[in-house]
Amino acid sequence: MLKIADLDLFYGDAQALYGVTLEIAEREIVAIVGANGAGKTSLIRTIAGMQRPARGTIRFVGQEIAGLPSHRICELGIGQVAEGRQIFPNMSVVENLEMGAVIRRARKEARSQLERSYAMFPRLAERRRQLAGTLSGGEQQMLAIARCLMGQPRLIMFDEPSLGLAPLVVAEVFEIIRRLNADDGLTIVLVEQNVAQSLTLADRGYVLENGQIVMSGAGAALLADDRVRQAYIGI
Fold first, then answer.
1. Helix axes 137-150, 167-182, angle to 10 degrees
2. Taken in order 182, 183, 188, 193, is the CA torsion positive or negative?
3. How many other CB atoms sit within 10 Å of the CB of residue 234?
4. For residue 2, which of 159, 131, 154 has the smallest C-alpha distance?
5. How far apart are CA 229 and CA 209, in angstroms?
6. Residues near 163 by Cβ (< 8 Å), separated by ≥ 6?
7. Which residues make beta-bridge pairs with 57?
8. 158 and 142: one domain?
9. Pairing relationship of beta strands 187-191 and 212-218 according to DSSP bridges
10. According to the model, what pLDDT value does residue 61 have?
11. Number of independent structural domains in the chain
C-alpha cells in the first residue's frame, strides 16, 4: 500500500533522513520505533507532504506522492493523528470533528461518519458542545483520532499517541488502534516511543536510528531481539 525507497530529507544543511526504505502492506500495523531525534516525526511529516524530500520515492497504492502538498495526500486517503494531538482548543468537539470532513473525499459521508465517531467515542458525544481545550488529555486524544476518521482515510499515521497520557488511557488508545485495524480494516503506521507496547501490537516494525533504518522484522521478533530490548526497553 505504501512503499518508500531511498528517502533523504534535509533541514537546511542538516540531514534528517538517510536513504530510508520501507514497505507497508494493506491492513497491516507497522511500528516505527526509535529514540528521540531518530527521525520518526520527520518521516511522518515527509509522507504527509509537510516536508519535501531531497531524494527518494514515496508511492501510495502505486501513485508517486513525494513532494505533493498535504491536502492532495489527504484526498488520496492518508490521515494523520499528530504528536501532541493538535486539536483546535477554542472550538467545540463537534466543530473539531466537522473540520476533519472538509476534504472532498469525506463530505458525502460526513454526517454518518460523525454518528459513527460518537458511537466509537461516547464521551465525545456527551461533550459535543464543550470546548475542546477543556477536555482531559485522553479525551483530546480520542478527539484527534475521531477527527482523523472524519476524513475517511485508508491509512492512518499515529505520531506518539501515548505521549503525556496516564497508563490506563494509553492502554485504551492502543486498544482503539487495534480495533481500527482489526474491525475497520485500516492500515496503521505507528510511530511511538513506547517500544514494548507498539511492537506487541504491530505486525511488523522498523527501528530508526539517526535517520536510518537499522533493523526490521516481525513485531514479536524485534521485541525478542536483545539489541532492541537493551537499547529501548532497558532489559
1. 20
2. negative
3. 8
4. 154
5. 15
6. 83, 84, 193
7. 5
8. no
9. unpaired
10. 96
11. 2
Contacts of 100 (CB under 8 A, 6+ apart): 106, 146, 147, 148, 149, 150, 151
Please give the Cα distance from 213 to 219 (Å, whole number): 15
Is 25 strand, coil or helix? coil
Are 52 and 64 found together in one domain? yes
Residue 40, C-alpha cell as written in the block? 520518526
3-state SS track over 149-214:
HHCCCCEEEEECCCCCCCHHHHHHHHHHHHHHHHCCCCEEEEECCCHHHHHHHCCEEEEEECCEEE
Nearest to 60 by CA among 78, 81, 82, 40: 78
With a cut of 50, which residues of the chain have pLDDT below it?
none
Residue type, 6: D
Asked whether the whole model's pTM tops 0.70, one would answer yes
- Same domain, yes or no, for 124 and 172? no
For residue 203, what are the CA distances in angstroms to 24, 26, 189, 219?
A: 10, 11, 11, 5
At 61, which amino acid appears?
V
For residue 107, the enclosing domain spans 86-152
Instruction: Let me know the angle formed at the C-alpha of 180 by 90 and 44, rounded to the nearest 5 degrees.
Output: 65
Contact 204, 22 (CB under 8 A): no
pLDDT at 235: 58
Backbone φ and ψ of 7, nearest 5°: -85, 125
Classify residue 125 by burial, with Cβ atoms within 10 Å: 0-12, 13-18, 19+: middle
| Distances from the Cα of 91 to the Cα of 74, 87, 95, 98, angstroms | 22, 9, 6, 10
3-class state of residue 47 by DSSP: helix
